[in-house]
Amino acid sequence: NRKVVLSRRPQGEIQDGDLSLVEAPVRELKDGEVLIKTLWLSLDPYMRPRMNDSKGYMDPIGIGEVIVGESIGRVIESNSDNYQVGDLVTVYSGWQEYCIIPGDAAMVYKIKEQGAPLQTYLGVAGMPGRTGYCGLMYVGKPKAGETVVVSAASGPVGTVVGQTAKQLGCRVVGVAGGPDKCNYVVNELGFDACVDYKAGNLEADLAAACPNGIDVYFENVGGDVAKAVAKLLNPGARVPVCGYVSAYNVADQSQVETPFHIFGKLDPKPEHRFFLVTEWQDQHQEITALLAGQVASGQLKYSETIAEGLDNAVEAFKGMLKGKNFGKQLVHIAD
Ligand code: NDP
């Protein structure tokens, strides 16, 4: 079993030697256990803060431990009545080719195939998709005619936020890095506009794209984008704080001006709060089915970037934190 472990805590950007690919035999299954072979591994921004030695909303990864992550796997051996050989599941396996779970483990879901490509259950029909959907609907609470802005617009979270807000009749403005991503967001995903924050004219471009101000800002990146948005928020605006990826590689987190600093000092204060997708875990099946159905019918568009094999996972992950990915970043491990 090949796996990627944390050898040393990264200081800032991940360097050679921080993460290592190691090999160990797969042990014998005990009673009640299930052996799962990883087919697709999901790379997600949250994995970077978990490599730090600070307790956030989840415990840090220990030195020598496998890097956390969700994957799609196939059951290849089962000592549990709950799983049969051949079952396809989403499971928090970590970055490894095989994992063993107790047959009653939480957060493992059998995939009910309904025509969406398998790997989308890690992207727009998976955890990031549910994050976008729930954060928008339950924290952002958009109404038809309002202006909704979402950053990291071409990624799986932003893709679902924007297309869901369009379905509700909102004016939807994305923020993304570079002309290719911005063109895609408007021409393929159907947003009304997309601002390239790397073009050097962020504040003016955003103001021009939001002539009626901003009613909902779905926060994925923080930093300069958040500051530009803050100047345009309408009274009564809502800011679901989903993440702030621009700061994830900063070595001294105490120096980061977070979205809570930026939005908390405004007058009037927007309704803003951090949320975790697990707040709506009881709706996992229902929202997964809704999003997978939209993928299958072609209504929900998306893109993905695929790295081949565990050997390329670290480089792909480093690239994603700098925006080298175009859509959901995946690692294909096996068929
Ligand atoms: P993406 O696939 O969108 O990847 C991250 C993107 O962030 C990059 O592609 C890049 O896009 C953008 N980015 C990177 N650096 C910067 C920067 N300095 N300034 C602005 N943008 C930057 O990721 P996801 O869709 O998976 O996740 C989006 C957000 O959602 C993250 O903040 C993540 O942590 C959060 N999240 C939160 C969850 C929760 O429960 N609260 C659950 C899942 C995700 P570009 O090239 O356009 O800049």
Walkthrough of the structure:
The protein has 335 residues and is of the alpha/beta class. It has 2 domains: 153 residues, Medium-chain alcohol dehydrogenases, catalytic domain (Quinone Oxidoreductase, Chain A, domain 1, Alpha-Beta Complex); 152 residues, 3-Layer(aba) Sandwich (Rossmann fold). The protein contains 8 helices and 15 strands. Strands 3, 4, 5, 6, 7, 14 and 15 form a 7-stranded mixed β-sheet that branches. Helix 1 crosses helix 2. The chain is globular, with a radius of gyration of 20 Å. The model has no long low-confidence stretch (mean pLDDT 97). The site of NADPH dihydro-nicotinamide-adenine-dinucleotide phosphate (NDP) has 30 residues, from helix 1, helix 2 and helix 5. NADPH dihydro-nicotinamide-adenine-dinucleotide phosphate binds next to helix 1, helix 2 and helix 5.
Tertiary shape? globular
Quickly give the structural class: alpha/beta
Strand content: 15-25%
Largest sheet: 7 strands, mixed
Output mean pLDDT.
97
Ligands, ions, cofactors = NADPH dihydro-nicotinamide-adenine-dinucleotide phosphate
- Please report the distance between the alpha carbons of the first and last residues: 16 Å
According to DSSP, the number of beta strands is: 15
CATH architecture of the largest domain: Alpha-Beta Complex
Instruction: State the name of the first-level CATH class of the largest domain.
Output: Alpha Beta
How many helices? 8
Radius of gyration, taken over Cα atoms and rounded to an integer in Å: 20 Å
CATH fold type of the largest domain: Quinone Oxidoreductase, Chain A, domain 1
- SSE arrangement, N to C: EEEEEEEHEHEHEHEHEHEHEHE
Number of domain modules: 2
Superfamily at the CATH H level of the largest domain? Medium-chain alcohol dehydrogenases, catalytic domain
* Secondary structure: helix percent: 10-25%
GO molecular function: oxidoreductase activity, acting on the CH-CH group of donors, NAD or NADP as acceptor
Keywords: Oxidoreductase
Pfam family, one: ADH_N_2
Protein name: NADP-dependent oxidoreductase
